[in-house]
């Protein structure tokens, strides 16, 4: 059987693709880890889904340091990617299975970076459907194929991370989040993205080239610049409207982001308004 790597859209849009959850190599889908549980650093040839139902575990994906994964969070590991899971306290109850995607005689794997994501209601329903079918029989039944397709759609909608960072749609949602709350923190963005803080910070840097905190400042100044260009408000009034208590801080950040003080930038931008 040949193997090919494809992206989310290919798996979702191609009716010839079959995605089947399986317990291949796992004695059961749900278990509570014993003290000292440690998978060791390894890689396998199927896409993996691990969900922490209760408790906590630490996870390392690829060369990343161990990070905490708590109850209600999911780790997706694409085929061939190194990973390691270790029990933390309280001992985790883990739900796990593999995904086998095929098109005819070809085996497919997702061209995605490993990621962690908060399980929302839609993803939870999809997971519950998969676990219920796996409890009946670990075979490629029509019901398992249907639940596999449902799960894949839920993962694609919930996760967003693409190779090397975060999907553009997720970044757009985060920009809208900053517009509503210009003084949000990087942890607020991570929660809005449904990712753990450490995962989010690394993925965000890969996607944008900057740290989340610097990006928040840039988005905040972008909002201020739009107000300056659109109306007759003074720079001081705009700074206060955005939430700045220190006019000097506003001026420094504005100049650092846009290369000129607010007043000079407004004069330069006026012909284009």
- Major beta sheet summary: 8 strands, mixed
Distance between the termini: 60 Å
Q: Give the overall pLDDT as a whole number.
A: 83
Q: Name the beta content range.
A: 15-25%
What Rg, in angstroms, do the CA atoms define?
A: 23 Å
Question: Which architecture of the largest domain does the CATH hierarchy give at level 2?
Answer: Sandwich
- The CATH superfamily of the largest domain is identified as Jelly Rolls
Kindly state the percentage of residues in helix. Answer: 40-55%
Question: How many domains, as an integer?
Answer: 3
Quantity of strands, as a count? 11
Q: What is the fold named in CATH at topology level of the largest domain?
A: Jelly Rolls
The helix/strand order is EHEEEEEEEEEEHHHHHHHHH
Topology:
Layout: E1 3-6, H1 8-13, E2 17-22, E3 30-32, E4 47-54, E5 56-61, E6 67-70, E7 73-77, E8 83-87, E9 93-103, E10 106-110, E11 115-118, H2 121-136, H3 142-159, H4 168-180, H5 186-193, H6 197-208, H7 212-230, H8 235-242, H9 247-258, H10 262-269
Parallel strand pairs: 1-10
Antiparallel strand pairs: 2-9, 3-9, 4-7, 4-9, 5-6, 5-8, 7-11, 9-10
Helix pairs in contact: 2-3, 5-6, 7-8, 7-9
Task: Provide an overview of this structure.
- The chain has 273 residues and is α+β, with helices and mostly antiparallel strands.
- The model is unreliable at 160-164 (pLDDT under 50).
- The chain is elongated, with a radius of gyration of 23 Å.
- The chain has three domains: 3-159, Jelly Rolls, CATH 2.60.120.10; 168-209; 214-272, Homeodomain-like (Arc Repressor Mutant, subunit A), CATH 1.10.10.
- Strands 1, 2, 3, 4, 7, 9, 10 and 11 form an eight-stranded mixed beta sheet that branches. A three-stranded antiparallel beta sheet has the order 6-5-8, with no helix packed on it.
- 44% of the residues lie in helices and 22% in strands.
């Amino acid at each position: 059987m040949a193997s090919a790597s494809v992206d989310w859209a290919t798996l979702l849009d191609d009716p010839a693709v079959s995605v089947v959850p399986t317990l291949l190599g796992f004695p059961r889908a749900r278990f509570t880890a014993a003290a000292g549980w440690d998978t060791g650093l390894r890689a396998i040839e199927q896409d993996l889904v691990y969900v922490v139902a209760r408790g906590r575990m630490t996870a390392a994906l690829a060369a990343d340091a161990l990070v905490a994964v708590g109850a209600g969070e999911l780790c997706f590991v694409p085929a061939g990617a190194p990973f390691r899971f270790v029990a933390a306290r309280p001992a985790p109850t883990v739900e796990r299975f593999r995904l086998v995607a095929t098109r005819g005689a070809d085996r497919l794997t997702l061209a995605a970076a490993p990621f962690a994501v908060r399980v929302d209601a839609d993803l939870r329903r999809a997971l519950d459907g998969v676990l219920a079918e796996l409890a009946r029989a670990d075979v490629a039944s029509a019901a398992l194929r249907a639940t596999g397709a449902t799960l894949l759609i839920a993962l694609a909608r919930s996760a967003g991370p693409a190779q090397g960072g975060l999907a553009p749609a997720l970044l757009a949602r985060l920009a809208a989040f900053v517009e509503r709350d210009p003084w949000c923190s990087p942890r607020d963005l991570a929660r809005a993205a449904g990712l753990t803080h450490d995962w989010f910070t690394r993925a965000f840097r890969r996607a944008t080239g900057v740290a989340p905190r610097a990006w928040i400042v840039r988005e905040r100044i972008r909002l201020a610049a739009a107000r300056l260009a659109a109306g007759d408000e003074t720079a001081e009034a705009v700074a206060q409207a955005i939430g700045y208590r220190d006019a000097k801080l506003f001026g420094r950040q504005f100049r650092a982001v846009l290369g000129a003080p607010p007043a000079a930038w407004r004069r330069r931008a006026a012909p284009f308004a």
